[in-house]
Amino acid sequence: MSKHAAGNGTPSFEPPVEQPKPRRKRVVLADARAPVTVLRTVVELEEQTSYGEQLVRGLIREQLQTALRVAIPISVIFLAIPALLYFLPRLNDVTFAGVHLPWLLLGVMPFPLMFGAAYWFNHKAESHERAFVDMVEH
Amino acid sequence: MELNLFAAAAVLLVAVATFSIGFRASRLASTTQDFLVARRRVRSRRNAAAVSGEYLSAASFLGVAGLVLKDGANALWYPIGFTAGYLALLLFVAAPLRRSGAYTLPDFVEARLSSRVLRWFATVFVVFIGILYLVPQLQSAGLTISSILPMPSWFGAVLVAVLVMINVFGGGMRAITLVQAFQYWLKLCAIAVPTFVMCALFFGGGGFHGPGLAQPQSPRFTADTTVTVRTPVLLTVQEPVHLSADGTLDGAAAEGPVFWGGGTHKVDAGTTLRFTKDSPVPVVAGAPADNATWLKPVTGSQDVWATYSLMFALFLGTMGLPHVLVRFYTNPDGGAARRTTLHVMLLLSLFYLFPMLLGALSRLYVPELLVTGQTDAAVLLLPGKIASGTLGQVLGAVTAAGAFAAFLSTSSGLLVSVSGVLSTDLLPGRVRDFRVATTIASAVPLALAIVLHPSDVSMSVGLSFALAASTFCPVLVLGIWWRRLTWVGALLGMLTGGGLVLTALVLNVVSRYTGSQPPWFVVQPALVTVPIAFAVVVLGSKATKAKVPPDVNRIRLRMHAPDKLGFIRDRDVARFGTAEERARLADGRHRK
């Protein structure tokens, strides 16, 4: 059953009402809308059990990797431009439709490139988070 | 300068619009959360316009075109870096910073590292940076206003300071959100429309009549020109030029015709130079003297290093600017913070097309600015040169209105950021305290702006970004992604990074007096200072392992868990909210 699967690796299965700081007004068992499994995993995350901590670590690592997967190629491209023009000065004189190549490389190309990268990252980061929420809730 | 009625009317219109939008929005603001973070209810599209409105300061509106005019292809790195800064912010900071629930940068630092000492230090630093940025904003507003209205330069500074203070006083963040969003679109129109008209005139008239930018020579004067030098300059003369002068040249009094061969020449303040049409333009030392060099981004190995250093400063500096971050706390949640950033990148890319075009056009039409080096005026003067008569005046008035809006929106962001920090860290943080802080935070920079000489506080754009990149950037990035950061490491890193950049600033001022050209790592130190700051933070944290805060896992969970799980705990609500709001906060906001 999924509700037990979510609890694997925890020392004991305590009903969610027995949180460390019980609040009187919140009688969770009476709340028909709140599925028990959701609460259990959320509580595990919040209580920093080893299972919960591993989940969060995995998510953080995944998001950082996605960010680096965007940051590294973009930095390499930008870092390459001055070096390229320094070692191959002939590139300075190449023109397209009367505009010199460096002006196209610096004035036009970076903006769609950066926006595309940002769009991709935003999409990825959101889908990771959706997957994480799905995993926690089911 | 003579009274330009159109420009006066345009500036007045912007002032009235700013005041009335701020006034209407202020009526909705009543609580501390309204004043600090606009109740965190700003939708991402409007927030993106407001972020862009705040970010496009005079350095972007006037400065980018001026830099392109002076430095050519090399200056294109500025718009790239200004935009790439938001890419870095999106990748590493935006969502976790919002989810931390902090309401100011010092508050984030305390939430993450549980240190009052570091919080206090960050407060001092935010206020220092805020004033350091506000003073030049006010001063250049004064200079710009005095160039279009027959007013002394303090008038513009007072006008901007008072308008901004009224808005922030009345509604804090709530009021300026609308104002800044409005000012983004105003600035975009104020630069796009004149650019389109001027391009139409330029191409309709069959292009430029004279040697174009592709000719590898010095730029040429388009008419007989008289230039008055107000601050001493060192000029590079590439092609020999005949001129007549009245004043002091190369340390000797000069009156009447002068012949300059190739080389550098020193011109003292108060000297008047007269050039005839089509004579080559002498250029301030340090800038490319002929169009062939101007067209190339890299001309020597020094250039390569300087470019890399500038890239470091701009790419990493944006995320360390407290007045930019303050707008990110107003997003409803982490996902919205990311969408805002994405949208900002689109708005900025759209905007920067125009200053780049204007910069290239002004190399043809207003090369006389290269003699004084005050190239920031290019956007304001260009319309009058390309379009004649009333059309030129109207277009000039439109760009002046845009520049005025740029001063207003950036100053208001700075003022909110400083007021928020002052009122919550030095005062109890009620609405009344915020207003007291606003009054102080606008009066002190205004007094400084009037008393100090502009060149005393002028810090290049590159240096101010280097300062942000070497102080707050390492603390934010490592605070969000690295578990073992300690407050001692963060403090040491900020002190080292900030100290090194301020040293470079002092060395720059010294070399201005001695007249020697400083090496690239003094002009733009980020390539050196940022890695050092990161290294010091890491080493300092490793040496003080015991100081890792005990609740680090909880904070990390809060910063990185998806919004839907409801772990966000807004610290402003916890501190300033009503009992009911606090109770709701304790329940979390799990949205299923």
Question: What's this model, at a glance?
Answer:
With 138 residues, chain A is mainly alpha-helical.
What does this structure look like?
The complex is a heterodimer of chains A (138) and B (592). Chain A has a two-stranded antiparallel ribbon with strand order 1-2. In chain A, 64% of the residues lie in helices and 3% in strands. Chain A has two domains: 47 residues, no CATH class; 80 residues. With 138 residues, chain A is mostly helical. Chain A is elongated. Chain B is of the alpha+beta class. Among the domains of chain B are: 332 residues, Up-down Bundle (Amino acid/polyamine transporter I); 56 residues, no CATH class. In chain B, 68% of the residues lie in helices and 7% in strands. Chain B contains 25 helices and seven strands. A four-stranded antiparallel beta sheet of chain B has the order 1-6-3-4, with no helix packed on it. A three-stranded antiparallel beta sheet of chain B has the order 5-2-7. Classes of the chains: A mainly alpha (138), B alpha+beta (592). At the A-B interface, helix 2, helix 3, helix 4 and helix 5 of A face helix 5, helix 11, helix 13 and helix 23 of B. Chain B: One of its GO terms (biological process) is plasma membrane acetate transport. Chain B: This is Sodium:solute symporter family protein. Chain B: Belongs to the sodium:solute symporter (SSF) (TC 2.A.21) family. Chain B: It is a multi-pass membrane protein. Chain B: Pfam families: SSF (PF00474). Chain A: This is DUF485 domain-containing protein.
Helix content of chain A: 55-70%
Biggest sheet architecture of chain A: 2 strands, antiparallel
Uncertain regions of chain B: pLDDT < 50 for 5+ in a row?
none
> Which two chains share the most extensive interface?
A-B, 55 and 53 residues
Task: Output mean pLDDT of chain A.
Answer: 78
Structural class of chain B: alpha+beta
Please state the overall shape of chain A, judged from the principal axes of the Cα atoms. Answer: elongated
CATH class of the domain at 5-204 and 324-455 in chain B: Mainly Alpha
Strand order of the largest sheet of chain A: 1-2
